[in-house]
Amino acid sequence: MNNNKILADVLLARLRGRVSRAIGGLILLFAALAAGTSVAAVDEASVRLSQFASKPGPLMLQGAAAARDLYIPLSPAVDMREATVELKFSNSIALVSGRSTLAVRLNDLTLAQIPLDPKQPVGTARVRLPAERWKPGYNKLSFAVVQHVLDRCEFPGLAELWTELDLHGSQLHYRVEDRDRALLLKDVGALFSPGIGGLAQVRLLTVEGSAAPVVSRALPRVAQALALRRQFAPLAIEHASVPAGAAQLPESPAQGAQVLVGTVDELRPLLPAAMLSDINGPHLAIERQARAAAASASLLVVTGNSADEVASAASLLAVMDDALNPVPRVTQLGGERRTPGLAQLSGRVLGADRRYTFATLGFADAAFRGAGAHTARLNLQVPADYYPEESAEVELLVDLAYGAGMGPGSVMNVTVNDRFVHGRPLEDKNGVAYRDYRIVLPARALVPGVNTVRFDFSLRPEVASGECVSVDGDHLVAQIGGSSRIVMPPFASAALQPDLGLLRTTGYPYFSTDGKLEPRLVVSSAAEVGSALTLLGKLAQVAGAPQEGWMLQVGMDGDKLAGRALLLAPAAQLPDDLFASWSAALGRSVSWPYQALNDMRDEGRAATHGFFSVLMDALLQGKASGQAPAMRGRVQQDGGLGDLGGIAALRNPRSADAATLTVIAAADAERLAARVQDLVRPEVWSRLGGDLAVWGGADDAVTTLRVAEPFTAGEQGRWTQLRLYLTANPWYVLLALLAGVVLVVVSARVLLRGRRGRIERGE
């Protein structure tokens, strides 16, 4: 009875405390509103830890001692107020209770030690992550285990030593608060940070009747500029038009910002006179925009005295370093100034017949200490139309060193894109240092886009004998210097199109390092502009830099679809002639090349496969497999796409040149917007391939096919064109060789007959 009374008193006291806190919060809120001040927005949310992992699946911690790190970004525009991580884990039932623990650290500070109990191998733990330990940028959340299965003579590599973290089921619960201060242009990157608290959506505003370059040129540049600040995270972009002469902007989205794009005359009724005064060129400005809710929102203004100046201001936004602009307004002097397309990307893409140090490519000195497995990664980005000779080689001149005391099994293995290319035993007991240790890679081991060269070290101590005698291996050391070099061979520019996989990884054929492209972004109506800009932002993220030449056009009439074009439209509005010569069709009715109707034995080849390899396949297999034949078996049917979205790449039938047309379609404009939002998510985008992909549904299912006739794109010389043609048609060379053999045999026979006749006549 007394226990029940005590429990009731405790519950009543807690209830009174919560009510009093709620009333106090309301009083503070009303007081702030009455005083005319703004209250910073508070964002409470949860996120799965798997979103911060480089690979899907659980996190394994193996061995007597192991540690793994997750890096969680926090936007500089917000302050962390509260954070808790909820962990779900399981451990081996062979562990020794009381000596095995799981430690949780934030930025190298240990916050909790969780005992691993073999009698309860599946557990859940909640650990508070103090707000004061969070910092803007990347925060390191570490998980470290100490595991034992024996009290003595324990080998640290036993298979029973393991703990598994379920990253998909584990969550980070957090509460952040906007920093309540005046905005500066240096805060643009912070506002659109990919981390916690960053803005994931934005609304672009133009005035009805704006000059054509404002919509066609400035909007694509603004979309790319903001998406690039999101780095790898998708940015949802909306577009809306403000009536001409309107005196008020629409209210900002609850979780987003607004960007106002237009000339000074167009924006004059919407903005304070002080903001638009003394503008004498391309101009950027930022301020907080009041809205009905207690918190304020961000308003970015891209303007100028003419439409060309507005486009130039959008280019400035795309290339500027935010940290160098600690002011609310900036004006570019000199008027329109075209910057080279992909200027930033050109510096990172490896050129033909050039040398680079590892440090230039972002690889610092890598030193490894202690026994166990160690990995260093070097990222190499080659052009999307990379096409080397078959015999070409890439040289890695590595400055490699390792210390004394290495035992059996100490090795260095080198892989390129998970393909083994070189191995080296570390067998000198006294240690050794190499200058320009030469590793040769086939040039065709590199693929268009980003390549990963991985140096895997396994360091093992010398073998010791005797009971319970072991060497811990703390003395072991190996190093790769940033002064190491890579030597690229000469290579041509060519790519096999259409290829959604190449579009997914590099943005090709709509982005290039020379900046000379002028691709078209075409929509059937103004309702698809936001979706088109969202997709363009994703392509800019993939390419890593903006492409200035984009032209946004509304309507599919005339020559708007000529050249390299990206088309977004409801399926029923797609012109029928686009798919007249294609093995599939998206439109009022659809054509599906069902696999049961097609011969799938002939696999397609990338343009990097050369003539001799294709010719050998032709000789050995009895048929040429230089290119994937278009699948002709198909079923024409009524029924539409339903809730699915489709993306198709094909040779543009409205262009005389070899140009790629990419079509993104759905049943209607509303579903098209939803499917584009799904498409730019990593779960869907990472699975694009072939030249036709269909996606949709709660399970993010993606179906890809290769159905179009391939063609070659790029700027090739005559020899490159000949090699590409012979690669695609190896039977011509085989027939030429046979004809040459026959000609030699016939000529030899004729000559021998003549010789014999002269001998018989005694001449």
Largest beta-sheet characterization = 7 strands, mixed
Shape: globular
What is the strand content? Answer: 25-35%
Q: What is the number of strand segments?
A: 39
- Terminal CA distance: 138 Å
The overall pLDDT, averaged over residues, is 82
Sheet with the most strands: spatial strand order: 31-30-32-36-35-37-38
Structural class: alpha+beta
- Domain count: the total is 5
List low-pLDDT spans. 1-8, 10-15, 19-40, 339-344, 601-609, 618-630
Furnish the topology, listing elements before pairings.
Layout (H helix, E strand, L loop, with lengths): L1 H33 L7 E7 L10 E4 L2 E10 L3 E14 L9 E6 L2 E7 L6 E7 L8 E10 L15 E4 L5 E8 L9 H4 L9 E7 L4 H18 L6 E7 L13 E6 L2 H4 L5 H4 L6 E7 L7 E7 L3 H13 L9 E3 L11 H6 L6 E3 L8 E4 L2 E11 L3 E3 L4 E10 L8 E6 L2 E7 L6 E11 L6 E11 L17 E4 L4 E3 L3 E3 L1 E3 L2 H7 L13 E4 L5 H15 L7 E4 L10 E6 L19 E3 L18 H11 L13 E3 L7 E7 L8 E7 L2 H11 L2 H4 L6 E5 L4 E5 L5 E3 L4 H11 L1 H31 L3
Parallel strand pairs: 11-12, 11-13, 13-15, 30-31, 30-32, 32-36
Antiparallel strand pairs: 1-10, 2-9, 3-8, 4-7, 4-9, 4-10, 5-6, 5-8, 14-15, 14-16, 17-27, 18-26, 19-25, 20-28, 21-24, 21-26, 21-27, 22-23, 22-25, 29-39, 33-34, 35-36, 35-37, 37-38
Helix pairs in contact: 3-6, 3-9, 9-11, 10-13, 10-14, 13-14
